[in-house]
Automatic annotation (TrEMBL):
Residues 298-328, 361-387 are annotated as: Disordered. Residues 301-321, 373-382 have a biased composition (Low complexity). PANTHER family: MICROTUBULE-ASSOCIATED PROTEIN TORTIFOLIA1, TORTIFOLIA1-LIKE PROTEIN 5. It comes from the Eukaryota. GO terms for cellular component: microtubule. GO terms for molecular function: microtubule binding. Residues 22-295 form the TORTIFOLIA1/SINE1-2 N-terminal domain. This is TORTIFOLIA1/SINE1-2 N-terminal domain-containing protein. Gene3D superfamilies: Leucine-rich Repeat Variant.
Length: 464
């Protein structure tokens, strides 16, 4: 009977310890199997199943196992360790709130990874943690990413931090705009830093932050230095930076409803000069952004107010000249600053104090008025017609250039696709050749073994 009593009331701690130990060994074994291409898919599926069925008591153990892998592990191992954070966030939600700082630190350790797919997994995990674990403040995720963005000098870490921050801000329901507003000047200063290399990704993060702030607690002094710095990248040699700068300007136009109209003239002018970008994707982004800025309240087409003595014909002629000059600048593809013309000086009327001269100025015959009006309108119409013809010619030339560029881009894309297909075909052939060589070497080894065994038997028979 004593043995029965021992079995009926066992201690609970040894089985629990055994379970934890077994779980750790199982997770580590699966992580090791991720390195082998033959067992990769099965190991990944098993790890996903483990993550889905974890209890709150085993969260810390599982995350520690993910952190134990270092940069010496193969790329599939590093990538899946980050992807498992997404699985945890989607399946367990706010139960992981106490472990969120450790999960973020796991992501930060992978931002320096040279493999872009690992950094992409970090961005996905940032989104899943933001949307899945809402019990912790957003600053738990954003603050470490901002610190890494500002202080880390590694180019891969800069890219990863900027992409993760932008993705998390875009996904957050409550992105803590006050904290983001305070960090915006620090982030914006990186645009002028020569040590910061990931400028396109940084511009994307700045645009996301501006969109999240959405005009709350905005200060004009911030936009006074931010807009010129962002606008400089509209003429960058990197087309990704040009596109990201245009997208950031679009965010400013939509988010800063009160302050953006103050900068409408300058932004419309510079976007007008860049809307014929040689890259189609950038060109489309520029035009969408230009349309948003033009829709803002206020009139940016009048560069300067005419004097009271200016006539309507002089307005139309000067407007036509300005349009021609802007179009010429667009054809050259330059990003030079558009100079605003000076206000026309009103004509000075010399006063001689004589009433007779006043009468001469005021009293005119109806025939003279009609004659002057007819001649003025005819000259204005001819100038407008000439300007219209010039603009039509310029538009046709621009249209031809766009078609040629589009054709070249399409040709380049087809070339890249064919090259990629060729590389994939070559890779498949190499793999097939490796398999064939492996089979041949196995057959040779078997044949050699059989031959050796046959020789041994023959020698034995001869000796007997």
């Amino acid at each position: 009977m004593p043995s029965v009593q021992m079995r009926s009331s066992p201690s609970t701690s040894p089985p629990a310890t055994t379970t934890v130990t077994d779980l750790k060994q199982r997770v580590i074994a699966c992580l090791n199997r991720l390195s082998d291409r033959d067992t990769l898919s099965l190991a990944a599926a098993e790890l996903d199943s483990i993550a889905l069925n974890l209890s709150p008591e085993t969260f810390s153990l599982f995350i520690n196992c993910l952190q134990s892998t270092d940069s010496s592990a193969k790329s599939p191992v590093r990538k899946h360790c980050v992807s498992l954070l997404s699985v945890l966030s989607r399946s367990h939600g706010d139960s992981l709130a106490p472990h969120l700082p450790k999960m973020i630190s796991t992501v930060l350790r992978r931002l320096r990874d040279p493999d872009s797919s690992v950094r992409a997994a970090c961005a996905t995990a940032s989104v899943d943690m933001t949307t899945g674990i809402t019990g912790s403040p957003f600053s738990t995720i954003s603050a470490p990413l901002i610190e890494t963005l500002i202080h880390d000098c590694d180019p891969n870490a800069q890219i990863g931090a900027a992409v993760c921050l932008a993705a998390a801000v875009e996904a957050a329901d409550d992105p803590d705009p006050d904290q983001l507003q305070k960090s915006l000047p620090k982030i914006g200063k990186l645009l002028k830093s020569e040590g910061f290399k990931a400028k396109p990704e940084l511009l994307g993060a700045i645009g996301s932050v501006i969109g999240a702030v959405n005009g709350r607690n905005s200060e004009k002094s911030v936009l006074d230095w931010l807009l010129p710095n962002v606008s400089e990248f509209l003429s960058s040699d990197d087309w990704r930076a040009r596109k990201a700068a245009a997208e950031a300007l679009a965010k400013i136009a939509t988010a800063e409803e009160e302050l953006a109209p103050l900068y409408k003239k300058a932004c419309v002018c510079i976007l007008e000069s860049r809307r014929f970008d040689k890259v189609k994707l950038v060109r489309e982004t520029m035009n969408r952004t230009l349309s948003l800025w033009k829709q803002l309240e206020g009139d940016s087409t009048e560069i300067s107010e005419p004097s009271s003595s200016s006539s309507s014909s002089s307005k139309s002629v000067s407007s036509g000249k300005r349009s021609s000059k802007e179009a010429a600048a667009e054809l050259k593809g330059g990003a030079k600053r558009i100079l605003f013309p000076a206000k026309p000086k009103p004509s000075k009327v010399k006063e001689n104090g004589a009433k007779k001269s006043q009468v001469v100025v005021v009293v005119q015959s109806s025939d003279e008025e009609s004659h002057e009006g007819t001649s003025g309108s005819s000259s204005s119409s001819s100038a407008q017609a000439k300007n219209a013809e010039e603009m039509a010619l310029i538009r046709n030339q621009i249209s031809q250039i766009e078609k040629q560029q589009s054709s070249l881009l399409d040709l380049f894309q087809r070339f890249m696709e064919s090259s990629q297909n060729g590389m994939q075909s070559l890779e498949r052939r190499v793999r097939g050749l490796e398999t064939s060589l492996s089979v041949i070497s196995t057959d040779l080894l078997v044949s050699r073994t059989i031959t050796q065994n046959g020789n041994h038997k023959r020698n034995a028979c001869l000796q007997n």
